[in-house]
Write a structure and sequence with these properties.
Layout (H helix, E strand, L loop, with lengths): L3 E2 H11 L4 E5 L2 E4 H17 L7 E4 L5 H12 L3 E4 L6 H11 L3 E3 L10 E3 L24 E4 L7 E5 L4 E2 L13 E4 L6 H13 L2 E4 L5 H11 L3 E4 L1 H8 L3 H4 L9 E4 L6 H11 L4 E6 L6 E5 H6 L6 E2 L4 E5 L12 E6 L8 E4 L11 E9 L5 E6 L4 E3 L2 E3 L1 H9 L6 E9 L3 E9 L5 H9 L10 E5 L12 H7 L7
Parallel strand pairs: 2-12, 4-5, 4-6, 6-7, 11-12, 11-13, 13-14, 14-15, 26-27
Antiparallel strand pairs: 1-10, 2-3, 8-9, 9-20, 15-16, 16-17, 18-19, 19-21, 21-22, 23-24, 25-26
Helix pairs in contact: 1-2, 1-3, 2-3, 6-7
């Protein structure tokens, strides 16, 4: 197959085998023909409302088959789907919508955005009306993803590639008949891209409406899943299931299990390698910007414990010191990437600016080192970002919400080690008394649930000095578990 639009790629699959199951979620199955017809109906309806090529369409739905019906409909119009968390508080959603200016918002009440077309839920148009025949269109951008910003302000990452599909292009071992489990939320890049690639290659997408460790194993067994991408929190919850539970399920169909989204603890990586074998376990590192990415197999990892691998897809990596000079193997510095097409070829920011070198290399904000063979080892994050359960949380956003409470003088949010989540958010709050219950109620109106601190600590002294500076690293260090010799 030549390079074609996403819409044409899936339409060809639907024409070829309309009754073949393409999507399943919570026991509900959708064939290729079902998806194609539903997407056509949505696209035809939206076209009559003025949605067209280049328009952004925000999809704020929970994981469901309707989510991808909407994405396919967007691509049919040449529009740009923008997956958005349906759990976002209203004020945070408003900030993202203000940045992205979508022409259509699925999952928002009409009165909230008078300047945009809103459809409050996943309802389909009138099924009695035949869908109009639409011309083949290619979206100028495959997708746009909303993300937090280091200043606590959101940003939108617009993919730099058009909505075109090349069946001959490899996607991390995913074949044309792949059976792929998608356990994570579709508003994140990894789950969305993996579902899209599987769908357009003609495979079966097994989507979980929400993650449950035992159910994930059951689905792998039931649907003979070959490929699954998990964040370390998911890996940990599956790993800690009782042996008698894990042994109930046949995992022999698995060909590739990928850990990504957050650092995977060495003991957990080794445990999974022991469980399913080194050739089936992998770890990947990268970002929504797709400026760079690395991958490592379990077999390689056993030879280089702690590494996240070497660059993939023709990308280049280097480690840079504080003076801007490239560092030799073994020395720690900022990790910079360069994609094959050069700076600006993979994404653009809306609401943020990239940190780059003079010659166009960019960083995701991490620090690390390379070994003599070009394998990357991450050491720490240059930013203060907290990664909890695979979700990125910027302390500035949490602190802004905490500080909005009238009883809070100042605050500091840090990430502390957690066996389940990787990191848990711990809030140190300047207040005259313990107001945890009040703060939790207050934060529930401002932050999505995973951004709300798991633990609170109350102090009476200001946490910032007169210049507004916060000694975040010391505050965190003081609260880390003490090492015992």
């Amino acid at each position: 197959m030549a390079v074609v639009s996403f819409a044409r790629a899936f339409r060809s699959l639907a024409d070829e085998a309309p009754d073949r199951i393409a999507f399943v979620c919570d026991g509900v199955e959708a064939s290729r023909g079902d998806l194609e017809l539903a997407a056509q109906r949505r696209a035809s309806d939206w076209a009559t409302r003025g949605i067209g090529t280049g328009d952004s369409i925000a999809i704020a739905l929970p994981n469901c088959i309707d989510f991808f019906e909407c994405a396919l409909a967007a691509w049919k119009l040449g529009a740009v789907p923008m997956p958005l968390s349906h759990q976002l508080p209203e004020h945070e959603q408003r900030e993202i919508v203000s940045l992205a200016s979508p022409a259509l918002i699925i999952g928002a009440p009409a009165q909230r955005y008078p300047d945009a077309l809103c459809i409050p839920d996943a309802r389909q148009p009138d099924t009695k009306t035949p869908p109009a025949q639409l011309p083949d269109r290619t979206s100028p951008h495959a997708h746009a993803i909303a993300s937090g910003g280091s200043s606590g302000r959101p940003k939108v990452i617009v993919d730099g590639h058009p909505g075109e599909f090349d069946a001959s292009a490899a996607h991390y071992g995913m074949g044309p008949d792949a059976r792929v489990l998608i356990p994570g939320p579709l508003f994140h890049t990894g789950p969305f891209l993996n579902a899209r690639e599987c769908l357009l290659r003609g495979g079966l997408v097994v989507l979980m409406s929400r993650f449950d460790a035992e159910r994930a194993l059951r689905l792998i067994d039931e649907y003979k899943v070959q490929w699954v991408n998990l964040v370390p929190t998911m890996l940990h919850r599956m790993w800690r299931l009782p042996d008698e539970v894990k042994q109930q399920f046949d995992l022999s169909s698995l060909e590739r299990v990928v850990s990504s989204g957050a650092p995977c603890a060495d003991w957990l990586m080794r445990g999974w390698i022991d469980w399913i074998g080194p050739n089936r376990m992998h770890e990947a590192y990268g970002g929504t910007e797709r400026i760079g990415g690395t991958s490592i197999s379990g077999k390689e990892w056993l030879e280089r414990p702690g590494s996240v691998g070497r660059p993939t897809g023709g990308r280049k990596v280097k480690v840079v010191g504080e003076d801007g000079e490239e560092l030799p193997p073994g020395q720690i510095g900022d990790v910079f990437f360069l994609p094959p097409g050069g700076q600006g070829s993979t994404y653009t920011y809306v609401g943020a600016t990239a940190r780059s070198t003079r010659d166009g290399w960019e960083t995701l904000g991490d620090m690390g080192r390379l070994d003599e063979d070009g394998y990357l080892y991450l050491v720490d994050r240059r930013t203060d970002m907290i990664v909890t359960g695979g979700e990125n949380v910027y302390p500035a956003e949490v602190e802004a919400a905490l500080d909005a409470h009238p009883a809070v003088g100042s605050s500091c949010a840090v990430g502390l080690p957690d066996d389940d989540l990787g990191q848990r958010i711990h809030a140190v709050v300047q207040a005259s008394s313990d107001i945890e219950d009040e703060l939790r109620a207050h934060l529930a109106e401002l932050l999505v649930r995973y951004k709300i601190p798991r633990t609170f600590e109350f102090v009476t002294e200001p946490l910032r000095d007169d210049s507004g500076k916060l000694r975040r690293s010391k505050i965190r260090q003081d609260r880390l578990p003490k090492q015992v010799d």
